[in-house]
Structure formats: C-alpha cells, structure tokens
Amino acid sequence: MARWFFRLAMICFLVLASAPAKAPTPEELEEARSYLRNKMQEGQNVARLLAEVVNLYASPDISSASYRLDNGVAFSTLKLPYYRDFTLPDRGWSLFAGINLSYLKATSHNETPLSDQERLAADVTWRGYSGLAEAGARVPLGHGLTLSPSLGAGLAQLRNQTEYLNQFSKENFAPLYQGIAGNFSLDAAQYLAALSLAWRAKLAGLDLACNLRYAHT
Length: 217
Hints:
The chain has one domain. The protein contains five helices and seven strands; from the N terminus they run H-H-H-E-E-E-E-E-H-H-E-E. A seven-stranded antiparallel sheet has the order 1-2-3-4-5-6-7.
C-alpha cells in the first residue's frame, strides 16, 4: 500500500522537478499536490485497497496475530468482540447483539533511488481503529442447525504516519505528500449485512460445532 503511494507521488515530483536548478514555485507545488489528490480520489484501486484493509481488522472474531512479509512490511491485528443472547419467552427463536472492537498496526521501510546521488527514504506506519455494533436473530432449523441473519453499523479510522529519513526527502517529498499520501487520516462508516449457519452436535461425548458466515460490508 505505502509503495503504491510513493510511486504515484514520485511521478508528481519528477514532473515538478523537471528543471533541477530551479526550486518549484508555490503555484507549481500546489498544482502537483492537486494532481496527486485528484489521482488518489479517482483511483478505484486505492479505495478498494483501503476498504479491504478496514475489513481485515474489523471482522468479528477473537484473534490476535502478527505478520512479517518478505518485502519488509510488518503488521499486527487485535480483535475483541462481545456478544450476548436474549431469550424470548414462548418463542422458538432468540435475539443477539454485540460489539466488535479492532486495532491494526502496520509498518514498512521505503527506499527508492531517484539518481546516483538522491533517494527517497521514509518509514511509514499505519494504525487502524474500528467499532462495529451488530444485532440479529438465531432461528433453529432442527438437526443442530441454526440460521442467524444480522445487520450492523460502525465507524473505522485509518491513520498514516510518514517519517522522512534524509534531507532530500524532507525538502522535496514532504511538501508534496503532506496530508494527501503521507501523515493523513481516513474515516469510514461501516454497514454490515450477514447470514450465518451454525451446526452443533455431540459425538462420542464430544461437542462438535461448525459455523459458516457470509458477510457483506
């Protein structure tokens, strides 16, 4: 994700720095920032990628995991759901409601040579927070099967923190990135429609359970 932002902004910088002996004017810098901002807003791949990241750490399950990829990206997630069932008298079905709190952190080190003398160097940190409330019904189907439709809504925030590691990056890239592709935050509303099918049975004194869930967010 961070590398895609850097490649896009590097194109803007190379256009902006076509005359290396002359520093860009404020008007030229603002024109490049406007171009970068428009490209990010138009890019469906960017929006889809950010939505996938939000869904990654907002799914309702108890888990804590850490990953380190070969490209140097490291990220961890923590999810804490709390759900409660409400039994209805004289009804064959019940209600449930709950909330899911999630956190994500991802870090990467980025170095892109631009010439023999200059390079773009930065450490990028992503942090994500979300809270999702969900409510639905549990409808027994018999033979240990239970169908559970549900709806939910919540809020999520994704924050980017970019630290530039050399003077060249601070002077030439920080003014271009700031608030657009570096050091920015993204707020998102979440809406959930889900359908779960659970199966429970006892076999040789063992409690067996299987749960299938389809969710659209």
